[in-house]
Amino acid sequence: MQVLLRPFLIALLLALLPVLAFVFIQNHNEFTFVFGLIPGDTHHLQGIVLMPLAHGDANHLWGNTLQLFLCLFLIFIHFRHLSKYILFFIWVGSGTLLWFMGKHGSLHIGSSGVIYGLFGFLISAGIMAGNRRLRLLSFMLLMYYGSMIWGVFPWQEKISWEGHLAGLTSGVITAFILRNSYRVFTGDIKPSWFNDSDSREDPYAGFDKSR
Fold first, then answer.
1. What is the pLDDT of residues 55-97, one digit of tens each?
2. Cystine design at 126: which of 24, 54, 138, 158 (Cβ 3.0–4.6 Å)?
3. What's the confidence (pLDDT) of residue 129?
4. Where are the domains of the chain?
5. Which long-range contacts (CB under 8 A, 24 or more apart) does 120-123 make?
């Protein structure tokens, strides 16, 4: 339990940042425009970093907060040695991609892009990590949250599908770039009997001779 306490608290604190920002924006409505990201607008570059903190209403906020906490918690547990780099690359990368690929003049807010990025990283890194436990985690996430993939298509109104796509792309790219770094400590350790140099006697070596 002690091993999980630190990742739990860090993930909780980071997931609560949008809540604090929401309270602040509710009292200062003019900051919604400041926090938001407008693709292609050089006057709103701060939105690349601030966009995940801003939400339109309480339903939007709470829906994202729970998912953000879960993804962060899984990152801090399974990739704790690289967690700060993973979060930085996805947080900034998703906003940067959205700034370039989003529809000019549109306003984007919410942490769903970061959530899609973390989700994409967990799936991709779990497959590339060389670890059966992480492959199982990837499979379970796909089973329970696989429907999130529909969020990257322009089918729903008032949904930032471009932000979702940018986030997912940044997560997959981050997993690919850092693959050698996390495989060092996520790769399955081969048991001693797997090595040819193992000097222990094979318990089945004399089985056929005794018959």
1. 888 888 998 999 999 999 999 999 988 999 999 999 999 999 9
2. 138
3. 87
4. 2-187
5. 120/167, 120/168, 120/169, 120/170, 120/171, 120/172, 120/175, 121/75, 121/86, 121/90, 121/171, 121/172, 121/174, 121/175, 122/71, 122/74, 122/75, 122/78, 122/171, 123/171
For residue 128, give both structure tokens: 């590339």
- The CA-based angle 164-64-24, given to 5 degrees, is 110
Closest CA to 17 of 45, 46, 51, 43: 51
Torsion sign over Cα 78, 84, 89, 95: positive
2-187: CATH topology is: Rhomboid-like fold (1.20.1540)
Spatial distance between the Cα atoms of 68 and 119, rounded to a whole number of angstroms = 9
- 2 is written with which tokens? 């002690």
End-to-end CA distance of the chain: 51
Helix boundaries (H) for 36-82: 47-50, 58-78
Instruction: Give the whole-angstrom CA distance, residue 72 versus residue 166.
Output: 18
Q: Are 170 and 94 spatial neighbours (Cβ–Cβ below 8 Å)?
A: yes
Rounded to two decimals, the pTM is: 0.84
